[in-house]
Amino acid sequence: AKQRRCMHQRRRARPPRPAARPNTPSNEPRPISFVSETYLLEEGYSDAMDYGNASDNQASAPTLPTLGFPEVELGRVIGRGGFSVVNEIREINLQEVYDTSIEETSLRAELAQQCCDEETGFSRYVLKTLRPDLPEEEHTKGVVDLAVEARFLATLSHPHIIAMRATSNSDPLESKYFVVLDRLVSTLEEKLILWRKEVGASMGVWFGPCVGYCCSKRHVLHKLWLERLLVARDVSSAVLYLHNQDIVYRDLKPDNVGFNDDGEVKIFDFGLAKRLHPDDKTANDLYLLTGNTGSLRYMAPEVATGHAYDKRVDAYSFGILYWQICALATPYAGYSMKMHADLVVGKGYRPKPDPSWPLSWTKLMKDCWASDIFARPDFAHVLQVLDSEIEDLLHDEGVVPSRASEIRAKKRKSQRAKAEKVGQRLDVDTRISSLVNNGNDSALEMTKEADIV
Predict the structure, then answer these.
(1) Distance of CA 317 to CAs 19, 313, 343, 425, 441, Å?
(2) Which domain holds residue 43?
(3) Is residue 244 part of a domain?
């Protein structure tokens, strides 16, 4: 356990963290104050209305305190998404008018006291609310997104899932609604860049394919491999927890995996999560759910084509993410949306595993991203495989790859230029129709010469 913890960032001495579950933004919210339930149903946003059947999880979920906007003093913006903006919370100044019961008063007082670290001044919490500049259609989607996320986070409790500490005292379908979450200091996307730099600095001198790298820092490379596998393992444990609750996540990608200031992995952004119900099941035990949901780069083919699917779409996303953690490169770099549809969805193209990687790693990736949804493993198997690989690395029994053919200090300029032009389109959230529909069609045709990776 000590060896595992050392792979994350060094813990700093501080008062203990709050136990799990125990102001107005800079821009005024949109004048639209409420999205009716009837409107949501008519427009197909049933996810926001789907609060699921009462379960043991929901029944035992602890009560969360509520806050009013005037009680929250916001700091700088630390994140922006397609629909939401995230501000740090500098201070919570409670007002008696918002107290509704003795229990609520106690919960609110405890939250306010734990808002900031007294020794370091570090803000422990952030406030997430809708962006005020959303167009009409995106605004409605954003309301749904945040309401769905709040619904799930209120009932979930896992060491690798972000914790919700409080909510707004307004209705979840109102524009002013907000949630208070634990603060994260970085994302996996940022971590991948840092890992790449560290690996590049530790590889030594390249003497060609026959000799490979010389004077490499093997102990550092070994530590980095272990750290990366631990992150993959923690992500898979969180997804397994969700699947055991009959929840499909549908948006697994580096931007939705974060780290707190202790280096602990947390997945966040549950706007696309969905609880599976028997009423949606088809004859082949799949589910009739919304298609084209998530980010194309990590989206399973059956989701992109609008076919029925189940929890195993998360296995596909994890396979792509696992390859990215190992390769420290962007999957499908340089692909346009048209290329992705033709090659990845249509012809089954996948990222190429490095031949130096252990066969068990490659097999796990290929099993996860199999075109046949029924051939993909469940996350109990994924977790078992990763635990075994980590155990081997901890005991120096596993083969640590040289990464000679995949990790380089510099990328080809042509590949980088193509990625800047069109590759980022695969990262656009498909819920944000204005960004997807306003793309330049000519750009989609400019990448036929892009490398297949």
Answers:
(1) 31, 7, 17, 17, 27
(2) 17-183
(3) yes
**Helical segments of 205-358, H only:** 218-244, 301-304, 313-327, 337-339
| Beta-strand runs (E) in 147-268 | 164-168, 178-182, 186-187, 205-206, 213-214, 247-248, 257-259, 265-267
Is it the case that residue 188 has pLDDT exceeding 80? Answer: yes
**Residue 415 predicted with pLDDT over 70:** no
The span from the CA of 255 to the CA of 416, in Å, is 20
450 has pLDDT over 80: no
Neighbours of 187 (CB within 10 A): 18
Integer Cα distance of 401 and 215 in angstroms = 15
CA end-to-end span of the chain: 36
The length of the chain, given as a count of residues = 453
Question: CB of 378 within 8 A of CB of 243?
Answer: yes
Q: How many CB atoms lie within 10 A of CB 15?
A: 10
Does residue 3 lie in a domain region?
A: no
The pLDDT tens digits of the residues spanning 77-132 come to: 998 888 899 999 999 999 998 888 999 999 999 999 999 887 777 899 999 999 98
Buried b / exposed e over 254-266, threshold 16 CB at 10 Å, is: bbbbbbbbebbbb
Does 153 share its domain with 244? no
Nearest CA to 436 out of 148, 140, 138 is that of 138
d(CA 242, CA 246): 7
Query: For the chain, how are helix, strand and coil distributed in percent, rounded to 5?
Result: 40, 15, 45
- Please tell me the distance from the alpha carbon of residue 155 to that of residue 320, in angstroms, as a whole number: 28
Average pLDDT of the chain is: 80
Type and span of the H or E element at 192: helix 188-202
My answer on whether 178 and 231 are in the same domain is no
Total domains in the chain come to 2
The pLDDT, as a whole number, for residue 24 is: 37
Residue written as tokens 């102001």? Answer: 23
pLDDT reading at 358 higher than 50: yes
The model's pTM? 0.79
In the predicted structure, residue 50 carries a pLDDT above the cut 80:
no
* CB burial of residue 6 (10 Å; 0-12, 13-18, 19+): middle
The DSSP symbol for 31 reads S
- Is the domain of 157 the same as that of 35? yes
Mean pLDDT of 242-251: 96
Region 200-205 average pLDDT: 76
Cα 353 to Cα 262: distance, rounded to the nearest angstrom: 31
